[in-house]
Specification:
Radius of gyration of chain A: 18 Å
CATH architecture of the largest domain in chain A: Orthogonal Bundle
Structural class of chain A: alpha+beta
CATH topology of the largest domain in chain A: Arc Repressor Mutant, subunit A
Largest interface: A-B, 35 and 35 residues
Strand order of the largest sheet of chain A: 4-3-5
Bound molecules: zinc ion
CATH superfamily of the largest domain in chain A: Winged helix-like DNA-binding domain superfamily/Winged helix DNA-binding domain
Shape of chain A: globular
Oligomer: homodimer
Chain lengths: ~170, ~170
DNA sequence: TTGCCCCTGTTATAACATAACGAAGCAGTG
DNA sequence: CACTGCTTCGTTATGTTATAACAGGGGCAA
């Protein structure tokens, strides 16, 4: 009876997603971390989703290829991916998106990459911006009251350009 | 057998909180809204808390004065207070703080008040800033990609001035 | 071999939030 | 007052998101 001892079938993703997964694998290896099967599959599912996806939706998807998956399975993977800057959590949605910056960045885990997220309330698509002026302004304002900034969450809700066109 | 038909005892708050509650009551009246007993008590509890307080902590407090309180009781009050700009939700904490702006503002419900929140990860205290440069920068960045902004969430995690002193 | 660290499996529970429906209260109106 | 419409609230149940806690497996180095 051939086959692996654990019920984990390989999940196939579109070519561009596979490319990003390969890059992510190499990126993790350089950090001395391992992009294991589960982590890779969760990342692939996030990258394949056109909009932010929640932990329990990921769990449902994961289960069709990984029988034993439970909430901690997903949350552990999400924590790893988040720690390594491969994904971002959108707080307002309790959902996750792939980082559109990380794979273009050569500074590693602690590069201080900060972003702003534009959330369209019509189509649900989230765009990641990296606007230095915004970061500078908020950092300055915080320092002016003696606050030491460690992490900034900026999430903008509104209507994206696409959706605005459709209405007019 | 005297007493009200509903088990709702008046809760007493410190003088400064009572002052803000009175102002809030007048503010709501001007809007044609009613700051009912439950809403007033929830607001009072939020204003009395030195740090953000979660819905279920509010529920526990509320129950000692209001036997029948259930989750919807609290969430309805929170929605009302939030809609009227009297409180803010801190997304990263799923918890609520009183607005430090509203009672100084004469523009009413739709004044477009926007704020940034500095969350100290040591003491848990949250400070509300109103920095126009930050708002301008993020609005500009969004408009540059054709995004129509409706609401912005800015939450900064780090160490407050107080706590930074204690360490050094 | 032993000990250590990382990763995972598994069960259970905590924490946060809303759906749905009916009744009570509080306007105005005739 | 009786009628009506609207807001608020009580109540029960359920949905959604996230973590605690502990055991086991597998690689690697001393
Ligand atoms: Zn990013
Ligand atoms: Zn859109
Ligand atoms: Zn405010
Ligand atoms: Zn502090």
């Amino acid at each position: 009876m051939p086959g692996p001892s654990v019920q984990m079938n390989e999940m196939r993703f579109p070519g561009d997603v596979e490319d990003r997964l390969s890059l992510s694998e190499r990126y993790c290896a350089l950090q001395g971390s391992r992009l294991t099967d589960t982590r890779r599959q969760v990342l692939g599912m996030i990258l394949s989703s056109p909009r932010p996806i929640g932990a329990y939706d990921l769990l449902d998807l994961l289960r069709s290829h990984h029988r034993n998956a439970a909430p901690p399975t997903v949350y552990r993977a999400l924590e790893f991916l988040s720690d390594h800057g491969l994904i971002h959590k959108i707080e307002r949605l309790s959902a996750f998106v792939g980082c559109s910056h990380r794979l273009r960045c050569h500074h590693g885990k602690a590069c201080g990459h900060r972003a702003q997220f534009l959330i369209c309330r019509t189509c649900g698509i989230v765009k990641e911006l990296e606007n230095d002026e915004t970061e500078s302004a908020v950092n300055l304002a915080a320092r002016n009251v003696g606050f030491h900034v460690e992490h900034t969450t900026i999430e903008v809700e509104g209507i994206c350009a696409q959706c605005a066109e459709h209405v007019s």
